[in-house]
Amino acid sequence: MSDIRVALMAAGRASRYGGCKLTALHPRSSQPLICHVIDQYQRAGLGDIVVLTGYWHDAVINAISAQVEVSRVPDWQAGLSASIRHASTLLEAHHQGLMIGLGDQAGISSDILRAITRQFQQSGKIIACNDGQLISPPAIFPRTELCVLDQITGDEGAGKHLRQMAREQSDRIDCVPVEPIKDIDRPEDWQKLN
To answer: Which end of the chain is more exposed for a tag (fewer CB within 10 A), N or C?
Structure first.
């Protein structure tokens, strides 16, 4: 498997949830959500994982039982873009790419992660998920494309840039078709997992 660094975004305040959603128990595994997500990445053979924390730093650290690195984003208040920029600084010389994942993506599966990793190994391009409506994370950025992450500002992720790239520079990106991957923004979102 290619040497991929995984950065799981887990720095936000989760104001729409009204608490720390990352420590809420996932109904399928009975693990805290962040642990369930980490487990899916590890089952896919992705072991070089760093969880990027912010507002709920202590709660997330206390919930994590897996052997993963944790890095607190110093300017997490600036939004998701701050976490993404921070993630791009964590690559070491041996890393071929950076996978950006979401700590609240309750519907992520090891099968999806294996599929996008295989596609990255074959093409060496940016790889993202496409559910037919959105191009979204998890996404892998080869070292040569990390400049894309520098264009992200505020509380937006890479999705807008990936969608524009797919329209205008399709030679730089491949998309893996997936069913919509459920994430948790509000407590009622857990019902969408059924």
So the answer is: C
Helix (H, G, I), strand (E, B) or coil at 65: coil
**What residues pair up with 127 in beta bridges, in sequence order?**
140, 174
Whole-angstrom distance, CA of residue 125 vs CA of residue 57: 33
Convert the pLDDT of each residue in 61-95 to its tens digit.
Answer: 999 977 899 999 999 999 999 999 999 999 999 99
Taking the C-alpha atoms of residue 61 and residue 49, their distance in angstroms, rounded to an integer, is 14
Cα separation, 12 vs 133, in Å, equals 25
31-35, 38-42, 116-120, 166-170: the lowest-pLDDT one: 166-170
C-alpha 80/C-alpha 70 separation (Å) is 16
Q: Tell me: pLDDT of 2 over 80.
A: no
Q: Measure the CA–CA gap between 174 and 34, rounded to whole angstroms.
A: 27
Cis peptide, bond prior to residue 138, ω within 30 of zero: yes
C-alpha 32/C-alpha 63 separation (Å) is 7
Q: What is the pTM of this model?
A: 0.95
Supply the pLDDT for residue 150.
84
Domains of the chain: residue spans and CATH? 4-193 (3.90.550.10)
Characterize the bridge pairing of strands 126-130 and 135-142.
antiparallel
In angstroms, the CA 148 to CA 13 distance is 25
- Report the C-alpha dihedral over residues 128, 137, 69, 17, rounded to 10 degrees: 180
